[in-house]
Design a protein that fits this description.
Elements (H helix, E strand, L loop, with lengths): L4 H12 L3 E4 L3 H6 L6 H15 L5 E4 L1 H5 L2 H18 L2 E8 L3 H12 L9 E4 L9 H10 L2 E7 L6 H4 L9 H13 L8 E5 L17 E4 L8 H8 L6 E5 L1 H4 L5 H18 L1
Parallel strand pairs: 1-2, 1-8, 2-3, 3-4, 4-5, 5-6, 6-7, 7-8
Helix pairs in contact: 3-5, 3-12, 6-7
InterPro entries: Aldolase_TIM (IPR013785), OMPdecase_AS (IPR018089), OMPdecase_type-2 (IPR011995), OMPdeCOase_dom (IPR001754), RibuloseP-bd_barrel (IPR011060)
Enzyme class: lyase
Keywords: Decarboxylase, Lyase, Pyrimidine biosynthesis
Length: 276
């Protein structure tokens, strides 16, 4: 029986530092690396990233959409990325942002969180905007299998504000309701709960109260997307020790050389460790 994700993440961060590196095989990056924009180029890109990062960083985050765009061959590459990353010691966070209801959500949970599924990761991202309760199949299965869930709470895209910052009759924002629901799931977990949140590193002083979360905070946007150390302090304040900054393009632009990619990830990790 594997340990809960929150405990495994705490251990891996202590060993390797608090950094999540994304594998985002965007067509533009494939071209920049001199690769073909097809399944063969995707495979070369993704496995180069695994070689560079999986033995060094705490968490590797493949973006599922860029693999799915290549059909069954792309999904087969993703399966290999998940397996080889795990073998090298990094935790896998599959960025799928799934969110649905009933049996459909249960099927997503089986795909990404069930024992024996070739797409199972250590953790996945999900969207709560069909209601936090709609995520129960994923949350329940993740709890049973020792996996984690990162729930979108407050993202940096401007379109998200109309939903995430909407206020209910009690004066609570939708994002805060998501935070509170995740905190309830994590109550009593030691050393850290397995239900995390995604909060953009560039959202500024959001007014979110994250103090009771007792779970990890994935902070995309560090580096090329503009977030600085000062931004992380402004957004997360006293909860900085639970933050897992995520960097993708700022590291990936150093490819295709494995040594250069690894060095870029290590530099980023050192700068994050000094901050947190």
């Amino acid at each position: 029986m594997r340990a809960p994700f929150g405990a495994r993440l705490t251990e891996r961060v202590a060993e390797r530092g608090p950094l999540c590196v994304g594998i985002d095989p965007h067509p533009g990056l494939l071209t920049d690396w001199g690769l073909t924009v097809d399944a063969a180029g995707l495979e070369r890109f993704a496995l180069t990233c695994v070689e560079a990062f999986a033995g060094e960083v705490a968490v590797v985050k493949p973006q599922s959409a860029f693999f799915e765009a290549h059909g069954s061959r792309g999904v087969a590459v993703l399966e290999r990325v998940l397996a080889e990353t795990a073998q090298a010691g990094a935790l896998t966070l599959l960025d799928v942002k799934r969110g649905d209801i009933g049996t459909t959500m249960a099927a997503y949970a089986q795909a990404y969180l069930a024992e024996g599924s070739p797409l199972a990761a250590d953790a996945i991202t999900v969207s709560p905007y069909l209601g936090f309760g709609s995520l129960d199949p994923a949350l329940d299965l993740a709890g049973q299998t020792g996996r984690g869930i990162f729930v979108l709470a407050l993202t940096s895209n401007p379109e998200g504000a109309s939903v995430q910052r909407a206020v209910d009759t009690t004066g609570r924002t939708t994002a805060q309701a998501v935070v509170d629901a995740a905190a309830a799931r994590n109550a009593g977990s030691v050393p850290l709960g397995s239900v995390g949140l995604v909060v953009g590193a560039t959202v500024g002083r959001s007014g979110l109260d994250l103090s009771a979360l007792n779970g990890p905070l994935l902070a995309p946007g560090f580096g090329a997307q503009g977030a600085t150390a000062a931004d992380l302090r402004a957004v997360f304040g006293d909860t900085l020790p639970a933050v897992l900054p995520a960097s993708s393009r700022d590291v990936l632009r150093h490819g295709p050389d494995v040594a250069a990619l690894r060095a870029a990830a290590l530099r980023t990790g050192e700068s994050v460790a000094q901050l947190l």
